[in-house]
Amino acid sequence: MPFDLSASLAERRAANLYRQRPLLESPQGPLVMVDGQPLLAFCSNDYLGLANHPKVIEAWRAGAEKWGVGGGASHLVIGHSTPHHELEEALAEFTGRPRALLFSTGYMANLGAVTALIGQGDSVLEDRLNHASLLDAGLLSGARFSRYLHNDTVSLANRLRKVTGNTLVVTDGVFSMDGDLADLPSLCAEARRANAWVMVDDAHGFGPLGATGGGIAEHFGLGMDDVQVLVGTLGKAFGTAGAFVAGSDDLIEALVQFARPYIYTTSQPPALACASLQSLALLRSEHWRREHLHALIKRFREGARTIGLALMDSATPIQPIVIGDSGRAMQLSQRLRERGLLVTAIRPPTVPAGSARLRVTLSAAHSVEQVDRLLCALAECWPKLTGEALAHG
Ligand SMILES: *Cc1c(COP(=O)(O)O)cnc(C)c1O
Asked: Catalytic: 176?
């Protein structure tokens, strides 16, 4: 029978992989209302606490009064307005690149950049734990597609020996489900030896990482000779929405000409660009947000170690607790929820089979007391979960 959707849905449910959308009935922030329940949340990507910042909201409001609401048309027709242009210039300056190009979402920026740069006869090499949008982009490009072992320069080097045509090495900067950093200095050196370009999607690095929030490129001190294509998204630490690609003048001109997800879509609302300009200013000037966030990360990791939780090698606000089995990950998430805490379980296919986890994320908006509350709840729930697993073999 064609389109047997109920069978696919039943199968997903039986595998503990069924997805449900929690209904958020409040703005983003540590304290939220979800499905009628007040909860302390540790799962948003609003790492600096800017999504509901009064100054960003005011910039949005003032922007809408000046520029109206809708983008009106695509950038190449009549949708490229002054706030978009100013945001691009500010992002270029922020990243230390000659130009930046604004996209409506990070998914589109990744599809656009990869498919504009490579096609049939070329090669694309991706870390096997890259974000889905990067993997989709590589497949869609029509280039020879190969995944190297996670963060493994030797595995990359082996594949670089077999490439044809223009070659693009693509990696997350901060891995979105693990929180670890790409080993960019050695990946970039390997790529350079093979005349390949490097594209880094630093969706989770901009804001939390680098002395001024400039992300992984700033963290490692890498310029345009190392990372030719630098992608950032605005929906995470910036607290707004959209994304950008930063690089050379030729790169940006090529994207304007050839990146279909840039060309064939309406520009984002100009007022949104006004809000992003304001959040960029806060991200750059309010260093206390980054400093407080890193103090929370340290406190959480120390506390988790005391409890005996299996943490990953992450110095970023992404602090996953790996459980393995999807059902048990759901159970732990549910127990925390009964105690007033919201931490989402992340299951395959978002993460590899057998590596379901609770993806704890911290934000500068959290207080030390709130992180301690999470640790207390984990100290209560975790031994029970592992104890039951032992009892049930
Ligand atoms: C969230 C994310 C994206 C997608 O960005 P959106 O603006 O949400 O579409 C792309 N890459 C990575 C690594 C991400 O985490």
From this structure: yes
